[in-house]
Each structure stands twice: as structure tokens, then as C-alpha cells.
Write a structure and sequence with these properties.
The chain is mainly beta. Helices cover about 5% and strands about 55% of the residues.
Length: about 120
């Protein structure tokens, strides 16, 4: 904890936009795949989008065409631009940093932020 700091959540009407940011230390960010996950009440945490250190992106089907993940390597920050928000996007959004260096036991590190609430009203 304390390695990833999220910001940008809030309350927005359906159809609106929000941008989430997640700042990390350079030692973590430079060789990590960065991801955004979300967890709605009563549901499991799910992947929203992720981006490798090389810039390859991956999106959940439910957000394709609406959300865009990007990273600024100079600022050690990953962003999630969320457009055309729907009430079903309401959740706590978590930033994740997963090392792209894989050991016998898995990624060398796997850090989570504390989460930021996104609420979309209908």
C-alpha cells in the first residue's frame, strides 16, 4: 500500500465523462503492466482495462469504445478516460501495477491502489 495513488472518481450523470489517474513510483511503473479494475457492490472485482509497458492495451467488452486507457511514462501515471458512462459502470475502481518480470512464483510484484468511487446516476 502507498505505492499507487488514485484520483479522479466522483459522481456523474449517465452519458457523462470522468478521467481517473493513478500515480506510481518510477521503480514500479517503468516495468509494469498497469491496469484498472472495478468492483461493484455484491460483485467480484473485474478487469476494466490494462496497458503493458510497451503500450499494448486490453479492454473488457463492456467498456470497449467508451473507455480509453493510457500511460504517461514521464509522469509515471496511468489514466482511464471514461466516456458515455452508464449506471452499470458504478463501482470502486482500483489501479493495479503488475510486474512484467515473471518469476517461478508469478509476477515479481503486484500492487493495488486503495480505490476510488465512481457513481453514475441515471
Amino acid at each position: 500500500q502507498g505505492q499507487l495513488v488514485e484520483s479522479g472518481g466522483g459522481l456523474v450523470q449517465a452519458g457523462g465523462s470522468l478521467r481517473l489517474s493513478c500515480a506510481a513510483s518510477e521503480s514500479i511503473f517503468s516495468n509494469a503492466a498497469m491496469g484498472w479494475y472495478r468492483q461493484a457492490p455484491g460483485k467480484q472485482r473485474e478487469l476494466v482495462a490494462d496497458i503493458t509497458s510497451g503500450g499494448n492495451t486490453n479492454y473488457a467488452d463492456s467498456v470497449k469504445g467508451r473507455f480509453v486507457i493510457s500511460r504517461d511514462n514521464a509522469k509515471n501515471t496511468v489514466y482511464l478516460q471514461m466516456n458515455s458512462l452508464k449506471p452499470e459502470d458504478t463501482a470502486v475502481y482500483y489501479c493495479n501495477a503488475k510486474s512484467m518480470q515473471i518469476t517461478f512464483w508469478g509476477p515479481k510484484y503486484d500492487y493495488w491502489g486503495r480505490g476510488t468511487q465512481v457513481t453514475v446516476s441515471s
